[in-house]
């Protein structure tokens, strides 16, 4: 990608434009911790970041990255499913939620997010967002995994109430194979 434009760039630019100091943010799929780290930087000292992952390797990787960058005290990293995020945050209390659907970067592709828990997490996340809050989705799929989940999520977001939320889907039309898809959601 000669332009440097990719799904992570789109997601991070969206986050940088909307997350302010003092924000309460959730990284619903911590992975290697890159989004958690950015959310800690954007939310600032007065903010709060909560990160979830079901893989111990991802939780440890995220904690290590935060420690290396001096943000270990700013985020809580939890070994739990994103579908349980409503047990950690109240309705309309969250400013930003980030999802990366698919597999752990550099990890085993047989371990990936699942359609059922992902849709449940999305639905709960929409309720947790405060008015003016945002949600960023990055859908990774390819080889033998992720197609069902991608299709289900793209169908689900079409049903989100258009009076309360704005949903924009960004896809790469000229990239080969299975380029990731970025989705930006605003709660009005």
Count every helix, treating DSSP H or I runs of 4 or more residues as helices: 5
Compressed to H and E, one letter per element, the order equals HEHEHEEHEHEE
Estimated structural class: alpha/beta
**Biggest sheet, strands in spatial order?**
3-2-1-4-5-7-6
Tell me how many strands there are: 7
Strand-helix topology:
Layout lengths: L6 H12 L5 E4 L6 H10 L4 E6 L2 H13 L6 E5 L14 E8 L13 H14 E11 L7 H11 L7 E7 L9 E7 L1
Parallel strand pairs: 1-2, 1-4, 2-3, 4-5
Antiparallel strand pairs: 5-7, 6-7
Could you please describe the fold and organization of this structure?
The structure is a single chain. The chain is an alpha/beta fold. The chain is 32% helix and 26% strand. It contains 5 helices and 7 strands. It has a 7-stranded mixed beta sheet, sandwiched between helices. The longest helix is centred in the middle third of the chain and has 14 residues, at 115-128. The chain is globular and about 40 Å long. The termini are far apart. The model has no long low-confidence stretch (mean pLDDT 91).
Compact summary:
The protein is an alpha/beta fold.
Short descriptors:
globular, about 190 residues, 5 helices, 7-stranded mixed beta sheet, alpha/beta
């Amino acid at each position: 990608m000669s332009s440097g434009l990719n799904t992570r760039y789109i997601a991070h630019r969206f986050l940088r434009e909307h997350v302010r100091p003092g924000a309460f943010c959730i990284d619903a799929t911590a992975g290697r911790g890159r989004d958690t780290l950015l959310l800690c930087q954007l939310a600032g000292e007065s903010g709060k970041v909560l990160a979830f992952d079901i893989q111990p390797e991802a939780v440890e990787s995220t904690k290590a990255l935060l420690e290396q960058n001096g943000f270990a005290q700013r985020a809580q990293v939890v070994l739990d499913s994103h579908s349980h995020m409503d047990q950690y945050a109240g309705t309309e209390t969250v400013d930003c939620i980030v999802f990366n659907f698919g597999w752990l970067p550099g990890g085993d592709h047989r371990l990936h997010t699942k359609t059922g828990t992902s849709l449940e997490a999305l639905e709960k996340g929409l309720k947790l967002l405060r008015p003016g809050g945002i949600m960023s989705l990055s859908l990774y799929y390819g080889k033998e995994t992720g197609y069902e989940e991608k299709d289900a999520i793209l169908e689900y977001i079409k049903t989100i109430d258009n009076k309360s939320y704005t949903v924009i889907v960004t896809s790469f039309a000229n990239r080969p194979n299975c380029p990731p898809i970025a989705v930006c959601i605003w709660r009005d």
